[in-house]
Amino acid sequence: MTESRDYLEMSFRSIECFKDGKLDAQELGKLLVIAERDGEIDDNEIRVLQNIISRIKPDEIDQAMHEKLTEIVSKVAA
């Protein structure tokens, strides 16, 4: 089985998402879809998601973002 390269696509797309200086819940959701595309979230994808999440500022966390972050945590902590 070949290693998934989805984490590279996630990294590239996250750069595009942050171009306006901020990531919203919809953009984060699209990155999660890429991570889940092959049926599992692997270690590289988790690392990329953690890196992306670490760049979110507290004042950017609205209700939609909070729900998306909670969803991601539940999926990568399992």
UniProtKB/TrEMBL annotation:
It comes from the Bacteria. It comes from BD1-7 clade bacterium. This is Co-chaperone DjlA N-terminal domain-containing protein.
